[in-house]
Structures are given as C-alpha cells and as structure tokens.
Design a protein that fits this description.
This protein has 138 residues and is of the alpha+beta class. Helices cover 30% and strands 34% of the residues. The chain is built from 3 helices and 8 strands; from the N terminus they run βββαβββααββ. A hairpin with a 2-residue loop joins strand 7 and strand 8.
Length: 138
C-alpha cells in the first residue's frame, strides 16, 4: 500500500502498487451494511468491469469476503473536472479536445445503454489532453 486516499463512514480507498499490472491502482473497501445495498453495489461494479473505453476509468475486479466488498480500479493522475476548469486557463485547442472526448464518452455510454442518474453525475478527471470519466460513483 502506498497511502490511504479517502476514508468515509462505510468505505476506504487506498492507492496501491499492482505488481501484476506494473502500475498504481486504487482499491476501494466498502463495508457491507445490508443485503439489498450490497447486491446493488455488486451488480453495479460487475457491470463496470465489462466496460472497455479509453475515456472511462477501468474497473478491474470485484472481490468480497463476509464483511467487505473490494473494488480495484484504474488510478489516473489528474484532477476533478470542476477543479481543472476553475484552476486552469484553457486555450481553444484544450477546450476542443476536452469537449470532443466528453462527447465520445457520452456517445459510448448511450450506445451501451449506460445511464447515469442525475444526483451523482459522473466525475471527469483531466490531465493534459486526456479525460477519463469515473463511473464507479455514478
């Protein structure tokens, strides 16, 4: 483990080095609180594992024991889209790149019939000319 990224009431997120993939990844540990919620989370993450798109953070696997779900997913060094747009002066070329990548991602999601609920809009991570959409919290 490299470091703990986030701690909340029922979950923790860790930055770790994955020797098999030879890169940093994130592991989210979620405490199982009730069967219905656990089943919903399990289904959600199993669906996300199947998504392959260069603009969407990759969810690698879901492992569980009696008390916890463990989800491993891609680590992307960037920042939240809101923070990025507030802290950065984007030139015309950058705005065009980010907009096109967002459109590509949204088209992909629509083609796969993946819908994101309004109350937890996807998070977008930006770095240089790349963007990635974080669906794990959607």
């Amino acid at each position: 483990m490299i470091k703990t990224i986030k701690i909340s009431e029922n979950s923790k997120t860790y930055l770790v080095y994955d020797r098999e993939r030879n890169k940093k990844i994130l592991i989210k540990e979620i405490k199982k609180t009730d069967n219905e919620k656990t089943d919903l989370l399990r289904s959600h993450y199993q669906s996300l594992i199947l998504i392959e798109n260069p603009h969407i953070l990759k969810v690698y696997e879901l492992i569980e024991n009696e008390d916890y779900l463990f989800i491993s997913y891609e680590y992307f060094e960037g920042e939240n889209f809101d923070k990025f747009t507030k802290n950065s002066r984007m030139g015309e070329e950058k705005i065009k790149d980010v907009t096109l990548n967002l459109i590509r991602c949204l088209i992909f999601l629509e083609e796969k019939n993946i819908f994101i609920d309004d109350k937890s809009i996807f998070k977008v991570l930006c770095l240089k000319k790349e963007i990635r959409v974080d669906l794990k919290n959607a």
